Automatic annotation (TrEMBL):
InterPro entries: AAA+_ATPase (IPR003593), ABC_transporter-like_ATP-bd (IPR003439), ABC_transporter-like_CS (IPR017871), ABC_transporter_C-like (IPR050173), P-loop_NTPase (IPR027417). The lineage of its organism: Eukaryota, Sar, Stramenopiles, Ochrophyta, Dictyochophyceae. Residues 311-324 have a biased composition (Gly residues). It is found in: Vacuole membrane. This is ABC transporter domain-containing protein.
Length: 324
């Protein structure tokens, strides 16, 4: 019998075909599966003509005070495996960018947001394992549920000791386990031990990383920790654990001393992306980025030379502070 000629398969980005196969069918609102094709770039995120929603005062404020209908980001794309930093002054629209990526900010009908080549309107109606692991988010204001520290990190996912220990180490939580009354079995939250702001931030980062998302959005998560801890998290978690494993990371930060290590930088001002490129290129250009460097780097140097004795006030319990 004659052998049938095999048709060449289309290339599927960085990931192998077996892994990407699970992204081919996306469930829509009516529950019907929809074939999204083979041409999508996997594990990246993109925004096209993101605009402020009509008559939505909250979103107008969130997007840097732009007038309704004014586009503040056009054709914004993060390539798979990229570590992108977003920087800018307070109120410049950094968090709005992440909200748009999450589909949490109302946009005009012509706006489009997608992840892994899939529209956000479909993204949140995927069924497991399609949705599992795709997008992760660590908010600027971390939250803690009333449970043990370990349960706060796992957040319903299976406990894998090797993976758990690695993430606790890279998120600088190992030293905290030694001072908590019952280690990671210590109950935290309203009915338990109250963590400091820096510790809550690190638990939030660990939770997001443990979920192993393909795309991780980090909203100024290093602001609550001191310079030394922040540098450890940046090197061991963001660079090694995330970028080292091919994850796509969007990091909002004003710690500009870290930017030479990232792949690309977006500069936000007045709700708009006013510049982007590598740190070296932006420094040569001057402009807004150069002004930010002058403002923020001096503040970072001062903070690094005067580290606090207790990060965020230490760990608080009913019997008072537990010294670090």
């Amino acid at each position: 019998p004659e052998k049938k000629e095999k048709k060449p398969r289309k290339k599927r980005g960085k990931k192998n075909d077996k892994k990407n196969a699970k992204y081919d069918a996306v469930e829509t609102k009516d529950g019907n599966a929809e074939d999204t094709g083979d041409d999508a770039v996997t594990d990246g995120v993109a925004l096209t003509q993101i605009s402020v929603a009509d008559d939505t005062e909250n979103n107008k404020t969130a997007a840097g005070g732009l007038e309704n209908g004014e586009i503040f980001l056009e054709d914004f794309t993060v390539a798979p495996g990229t570590l992108l930093a977003v920087t800018g002054r307070v109120g410049s629209g950094k968090t709005s960018l992440l909200l748009a990526l999450l589909g949490e900010m109302d946009t005009q009908s012509k706006s489009k947001a997608s992840a892994n080549g899939k529209a956000w309107t479909n993204l949140f109606f995927c069924t497991p394992p399609t949705i599992h692991g795709r997008i992760g988010y660590a908010a600027q204001q971390p939250w803690i549920t009333n449970a043990t520290l370990r349960e706060n990190v796992l957040f319903g996912m299976p406990y894998e000791k090797k993976k758990y220990d690695r993430i606790m180490e890279c998120c600088a939580l190992k030293p905290d386990l030694k001072i908590l009354p019952a280690g990671d079995q210590t109950e935290i939250g309203e009915k338990g031990i109250n963590l400091s702001g820096g510790q809550k931030a690190r638990v939030g980062i660990a939770r997001a990383v443990y979920a192993e998302p393909d795309v991780l959005l980090l909203d100024d998560v290093l602001a609550a920790v001191d310079a030394h801890v922040g540098l450890h998290i940046f090197k061991e978690c963001i660079l090694k654990e995330l970028r080292g494993r091919g994850k796509t990371v969007v990091l909002v930060t004003n710690k500009l001393s870290l930017l030479p290590e990232v792949d690309d930088v977006i500069v936000m001002q007045g709700g708009k992306m006013v510049d982007h490129g590598t740190c070296e290129v932006l420094q040569e250009k001057g402009g807004t980025f150069a002004e930010l460097m002058h403002e923020f780097v001096g503040e970072e140097d001062e903070a690094a030379s005067n580290p606090p004795e207790l990060e965020g006030g230490g760990v608080e319990g009913g019997g008072g502070d537990i010294p670090r």
